[in-house]
Amino acid sequence: MRATMSQPNHHPVLLNILQEVFGYGAFRGAQEAIIQHVGDSGDALVLMPTGGGKSLCYQIPAIARHRAGQGVTVVVSPLIALMHDQVGALEEAGVHAAFLNSTLSGEQAAHVEREMMSGRLVMLYAAPERITNPRFLAQLDSLYERGLLSLFAIDEAHCVSQWGHDFRSEYLALSLLHERFPNVPRIALTATADELTRADIISRLRLEEARVFISSFDRPNIRYAIVEKDKPREQLLRFIRDEHEDDAGVVYCQSRKKVEETADWLVAEGIKALPYHAGLDATLRQKHQDRFLREDSVVMVATIAFGMGIDKPDVRFVAHLDLPKNIESYYQETGRAGRDGAPADAWMAYGLADVVNQRRMIDESPAEEEFKKGQRGKLDALLALAEATDCRRVRLLGYFGEASSACGNCDNCLFPPATWDGTEAARKLLSCIYRFHQNGGQRFGAGHLIDVLRGKVTDKVTQYGHQTLSTWGVGADLPETQWRAVLRQLIALGHVQTEGEYMTLVLADSARSVLKGEVQLLLRVPSVASKRGKQSSGSSKKPGGSSSAARDLGDMDEQAQAAFEQLKAWRAEVAKEHSLPAYVIFQNVTLAEMARRRPGTLDELAGISGVGAKKLEAYGAEILRVLDQA
Ligand code: ADP
Ligand code: ZN
Asked: Which of 162-171, 341-350, 440-449, 607-616 has the lowest mean pLDDT?
């Protein structure tokens, strides 16, 4: 009983919306094909990396279809906390949008519902649990009958899959959309690529007929680096000070306690850091998130509870102080850096304890053995990435099934690590563990093992008479850090396993091949102190001049730099008035372009990427005035 279908949307209409509403010159990658397909009522599953530009894939069809009289697009989004900003950004661009969630008063909700039911609203954001609410469904029925239910967009679609890393049971109910509103097209979007999850999304959301759009997962502006842990907090501090002073960033830690400690410590060192984890009071958590989104250069120290749907475009680095669970998580978390396309860093410090901890967490979990096996395989892939001596990006993309060649923008490409042949050392280490087993079957941990190899006399050595072992002191030539690296890689490769609370070491069956000299072990030379260059800094950086935040926005002379600062100050006021994050008003890249090009007329201003018609009208005159005075 839908109203007559209108003409399919043709390409110029869609491009026109991109330019007029969003102020961008051209589509990126697969956007155009996706937008065309959905605009023409096709179902779609979109896999695109974070920062790839997913939002426009449903927003532009929503606008086009609304203009063609097809009514309201319902956007299902899991994070209530972010709906406000997403809607704010659309309204700033002149698109009528709203959200329905528990934060609204009865009166506000009633107003939104009136806007929706009249068909005036272009986009309605709602959390998945609302979809099953009978009253809401009845409203959708009414829209549907009047031909005013245009499109469903399901964001973070991996939440529907038990295989994904973010399962939300409320998402399961979304299958009813297809049954109840068979003629309404649906677009599901996610940044999680894994094959199994993909198949699961398709079957659970009944998207068998949908066209699947898979984009390259490369994020060329992100520089990957993994360093060996020495004094991790100091390494982190050095990384922030040397490369990201005054930048916004996220530091991931595994435990709440470590989050608190690290945040406290960074604050004591003069960094604007805030903690975030599920154990914090909800209002405090919200406050910290707001500050991160709204202020410049906040470093959020967080557990993985932080991040999903954080669409702040100018996060300049993501640091890991602990190893994530697997490559999917690592990629998702690091992907939060550099959404704006400007240079960003993914930095991780990892060490022996990380390997041992992650293995233990899997071993001790109550899951089925089959599941644990899968988890171990995924961890192994991540460890191989961490130990790699070749291009990190090639390995990352390879994991997601994408072939590529050395990237030139990861630590291993930029500073090829020295390698050494650790085969002999590995054999010594393994045979030392073997001697322990023989010698009374006793098991020992890493510290004692390395003491014995290096011929150190300790109480424990004397107690067990280990100075009589044939492996006593055979490794005196290598420093302790290097022995740790050998052991770590043997554990990473699965030749040594750890057991129990004391993490004692046990040989795996595969150790035999190493002992026999059948496996060559090429290891990284520990590079704790290795130097890293600054990104795109050097010549363009003025002494005492531009902050590192500005550095990533390209060259700016002194005058442009001053104008940029003025524009930022102006933007901060506007953002405050509208209670929205600054980037919703204009992103840094847009302000930087204004500062460089110094448009003198509204027409010239309109030519800058990120300046749409509505913003030109609302802010154009003021921007010209700010530029004139700067
Ligand atoms: P995702 O949701 O895939 O992580 P977003 O939709 O948030 O990515 O887009 C990332 C950034 O890229 C945003 O700042 C957005 O404004 C910008 N962007 C998206 N498409 C284009 C385009 N065609 N031209 C210029 N900028 C774009
Ligand atoms: Zn590389």
From this structure: 162-171
> What mean pLDDT is predicted for residues 296-309?
89
Whole-prediction pTM value? 0.78
Burial 360-398 (b: 16+ CB within 10 A, else e): eebeeeeeeeeeeeebeebbebbbebbbbeebbbbbbbe
C-alpha distance from residue 407 to each of 224, 382, 397, 524 (Å): 10, 19, 11, 19
Strands 211-214, 44-47: pairing kind:
parallel
Of 28, 82, 187, the residue with max ligand 1 atoms within 8 A of its CB, to mutate for a pocket test, comes to: 28
391 alpha carbon, closest ligand: 2
Tokens of 521: 């072990």
Percent of the chain at pLDDT exceeding 90? 63
Contact 299, 272 (CB under 8 A): yes
Confidence of residue 491 (pLDDT cuts 50, 70, 90): confident
Ligand 1 atom closest to Cα of 28?
A: 23
Q: Residue 245 phi/psi, 5° resolution? A: -60, 135
Q: Which atom of ligand 1 is nearest to the CA of 587?
A: 14
Residue nearest to atom 9 of ligand 1 (CA): 53
Confidence class of residue 606 from pLDDT cuts 50, 70 and 90?
very high
Distance CA 95, CA 118 (A): 16
Q: pLDDT for 95-104, tens place per residue?
A: 999 999 988 9
Whether residue 304 contacts residue 331, with contact meaning beta carbons closer than 8 Å, is answered with no
Ligand 1 site, residue 335, Cβ cutoff 6 A:
no
Minimal-distance CA residue to ligand 1 atom 16: 53
Atom of ligand 1 nearest to the CA of 56: 6
Q: Which atom of ligand 1 is nearest to the CA of 583?
A: 14
Residues around the ion ligand 2 (C-beta < 5 A): 391, 393, 407, 410, 413
- Lowest-confidence region among 238-252, 339-353, 367-381, 606-620: 367-381
